[in-house]
Design goal:
The complex is a heterodimer of chains A (234) and B (318). Chain A is mostly helical and 234 residues long. Chain A is built from twelve helices and no strands. In chain B, strand 1 and strand 2 form a beta hairpin. Chain B is elongated. The chains are: A mainly alpha (234), B alpha/beta (318). Chains A and B meet through helix 1 and helix 5 of A and helix 2 and helix 3 of B.
C-alpha cells in the first residue's frame, strides 16, 4: 500500500517536472473553454450540460496523451528494469501509475470549477447535475486512464501507445452512436459496453450503482490486463 | 546462498542461456566473464527476477524464484547494465524514492543511510543535480548507491566499470572490494584483469553455456601445461649460453629470441609442467650462470594469463 503511494506520488510529480502537464492542461482548457462558451450565450441556459457532454470525446484524445509515457518511457530508457528488480509487485506498479494518471486528470479538471462559479453569478445553477457531472467525469477519466495504462504497457514506443490508447477510448466513447448498424438483438449489450450512456446518467445527477459498477469494472479489467501484459512480457 | 540449477532462457528460437548451474557461497565475489552476447546479462537478469527462465530453478537463501520473488528482490541489490535511472529526477529525490520503495520508512534512518552512501560512493557534490546532467561514471555511482540502499546481503552488478575512466574504474573496484568483505557479490565484466584483481571465483560463459567455474588460482593452474622462462644475459656468447642451459636438464626447450636490449642475448626456455613435476627451473639456471662471469639482466617466469585461458575457452569453434 505504501509502495503504491510512493510510486503514485513520484509519477504525479513527474508530470509537473516535465512540460507535459502544462501543455496538456492548457490544451484541455482551451478546447473545452472554447467549445463550451461558443454556444453558451446562444442557448442562454445556466448549466454545464454542454460542457459535460463534450468531455468523453475530449478525454479520449487527452487522456492517452497523459498515460502514453507511463510504461513506454520506462521501457525505452531502461528504468523499467530498475523498478521491476526492486521489491514491488506488478500490481503495486500498475496501481501506482494508474492513480498518478487519475490524480493528474482530476487536477486538470480543477480549473474548470471556475465555470460553475462564473455561471452562478449570471443565473441559478442546479448543484445536482454539476456535482454529478464532476463525479462522473472522475470515473470516466479513471476508466480511460486504465485503458491508456494498458496501451502503454504494450509497447516501448510512446506514439504507438498514444494511438492504441486513443482508439480504445474513442471506441468506448462512440459505441452507443453506432447502434444504428448493429443487429437488434445485441443493441442493449453494446449500449451497456459504451461509456457514454453511463457517463450521461451520472452527469444528469442520477448516481446509479449500475453505472458506478460499469466504470469500476472497466478499470478493473484494464488494470488486470496491464498486469497480465507485464507478467507475460518478462 | 545462491543455488542455480539448469537455467535455460530462450528468446524466440535463440537460446541465450543454456543449462547453467552454479552455487555461490556467502561472502564470495564471483566474476562472470564472457564475450559480448554470451548470456551474462541474461543470467543476471534471471537471478534478479527481471526475466523468467524457461526452465531451471533459482534458489536464494532458501527462497525460490518466482514464488518468493518479492522476498528475493529485497535481499538483492542490483545495478543493471549502464545504470538506467529516472533522468528527470534529482539525485537526492531519486535516492529518497528508492529508499521509500525499498521500505526504509523512517526519515532519520533514510537520512543517515544517504550520508553513509554518499560517503562510500562519493555523491555529496552531486546530490542536488538532475540525473540527466550527470556523466556516465557519476550515474554509475548513483546506480551503486541505489543497489546498496538497504545494505543487502547480495549485490549483483552488471558491468559496473564499463565506460568509466581509469580513475573511476579503480574507485569502483575499491568499492567492490571493500563491500565484498561482508557481502556476496556477483558481477559481470569483460575486462579480465579486473576479474583477476577482484574476484575469488570466476565463471566463464560462452554461447550461453558455462565453460569454466573455479577459483582464479585453480583456473590458471589447470590451464597451464607449459612454463616459460625468459632470460637475458650480458657478456655471454650465444652458443656457450645455449649449451650451458641445455646441460641443466634434457627436457628444457631453448630458443634464442630477439634481445630485449642491444648488447644482450635473450632466451626463452620452455618446459612441460607434467614432465618436470612443477619444478621451478629458475634456481637451477641462476646457480649454473653464477659459475660463469655472465651477468643476469632478466630472469622471469611467465605465468599463464587469464586472457589466454579466456581465449581458449571462448574460441568460436570451441
Amino acid at each position: 500500500m505504501k509502495q503504491i503511494k510512493t510510486i503514485a506520488i513520484k509519477e504525479f510529480k513527474d508530470y509537473f517536472i516535465s512540460p507535459i502537464a502544462y501543455i496538456v492542461i492548457s490544451l484541455f482548457l482551451i478546447v473545452t473553454g472554447w467549445f463550451f462558451f461558443s454556444t453558451f450565450f446562444i442557448f442562454g441556459r445556466a448549466d454545464l450540460r454542454d460542457f459535460f457532454s463534450l468531455l468523453p470525446i475530449i478525454f479520449s484524445f487527452i487522456i492517452p496523451a497523459i498515460t502514453m509515457r507511463l510504461f513506454s518511457e520506462e521501457k525505452n530508457v531502461g528504468s523499467y528494469e530498475t523498478i521491476l528488480t526492486m521489491p514491488v509487485s506488478f500490481t503495486d506498479i500498475a496501481l501506482g501509475k494508474f492513480f498518478a494518471a487519475t490524480l493528474f486528470t482530476a487536477s486538470m479538471l480543477l480549473p474548470t470549477l471556475a465555470y460553475p462559479i462564473f455561471i452562478s453569478f449570471i443565473g441559478e445553477v442546479d448543484p445536482g447535475p454539476v456535482i454529478g457531472g464532476y463525479i462522473g467525469a472522475i470515473f470516466l477519466a479513471a476508466a480511460y486512464c486504465s485503458l491508456g495504462l494498458f496501451a502503454s504497457a504494450l509497447t516501448r514506443n510512446q506514439i504507438i501507445a498514444f494511438i492504441i490508447g486513443c482508439s480504445l477510448c474513442f471506441t468506448l466513447t462512440i459505441l452507443d452512436k453506432l447502434l444504428f448498424f448493429m443487429p437488434s438483438k445485441i443493441i442493449s449489450a453494446i449500449e451497456y459496453i459504451g461509456a457514454n450512456s453511463h457517463f450521461t446518467n451520472i452527469s444528469r445527477g442520477i448516481i446509479d450503482s449500475r453505472d458506478i459498477l460499469y466504470f469500476v469494472s472497466v478499470i478493473f479489467i484494464f488494470i488486470f490486463s496491464t498486469y497480465i501484459v507485464m507478467h507475460e512480457k518478462n | 546462498m545462491i543455488e542455480v540449477q539448469n537455467l535455460t532462457k530462450y528468446f524466440k528460437d535463440f537460446r541465450a542461456v543454456n543449462n547453467i548451474s552454479m552455487t555461490i557461497r556467502k561472502g564470495e565475489i564471483l566474476g562472470l566473464l564472457g564475450p559480448n552476447g554470451a548470456g551474462k546479462t541474461t543470467t543476471l537478469r534471471m537471478l534478479t527476477g527481471y526475466f523468467r527462465p524457461n526452465s531451471g530453478t533459482i534458489k536464494i537463501k532458501g527462497f525460490q524464484m518466482p514464488k518468493d520473488a518479492i522476498r528475493i528482490k529485497s535481499l538483492i541489490g542490483y545495478l543493471p547494465e549502464s545504470a538506467p535511472l529516472y533522468h528527470n529526477m534529482l539525485v537526492y529525490d531519486y535516492l529518497e524514492y528508492v529508499a521509500k520503495i525499498k521500505g526504509i520508512e523512517d526519515k532519520e534512518k533514510r537520512y543517515d543511510r544517504f550520508l553513509q552512501l554518499s560517503d562510500i560512493c562519493g555523491l555529496s557534490a552531486i546530490m542536488d543535480k538532475p540525473i540527466a546532467n550527470l556523466s556516465k561514471g557519476l550515474k554509475q555511482r548513483v546506480g551503486i548507491a541505489h543497489a546498496m540502499m538497504t545494505d543487502p546481503e547480495i549485490l549483483i552488478l552488471d558491468e559496473p566499470t564499463s565506460g568509466l575512466d581509469p580513475n573511476q574504474i579503480v574507485e569502483i573496484r575499491d568499492i567492490i572490494k571493500t563491500i565484498g568483505k561482508e557481502k556476496t557479490i556477483i558481477f559481470s565484466t569483460h575486462i579480465l584483469s579486473e576479474a583477476e584483481a577482484t574476484c575469488d571465483r570466476i565463471a566463464i560463459i560462452h554461447n550461453g553455456k558455462m565453460v569454466a567455474d573455479d577459483t582464479t588460482a585453480n583456473l590458471k593452474l589447470g590451464a597451464e601445461q607449459n612454463s616459460l622462462i625468459k632470460l637475458s644475459l650480458r657478456g655471454a656468447l650465444k652458443e656457450d649460453a645455449a649449451s650451458l642451459l641445455k646441460s641443466i636438464h634434457s627436457s628444457l626447450d631453448i630458443k634464442i629470441v630477439d634481445p630485449v636490449e642491444k648488447d644482450l642475448i635473450s632466451f626463452e626456455v620452455t618446459y612441460s609442467n607434467e614432465g618436470s613435476k612443477n619444478h621451478d627451473f629458475r634456481s637451477d639456471i641462476y646457480l649454473k650462470i653464477k659459475e660463469t662471469d655472465w651477468i643476469i639482466i632478466q630472469l622471469i617466469k611467465e605465468s599463464q594469463t587469464l586472457e589466454k585461458i579466456f581465449r581458449e575457452l571462448t574460441r568460436e569453434d570451441a
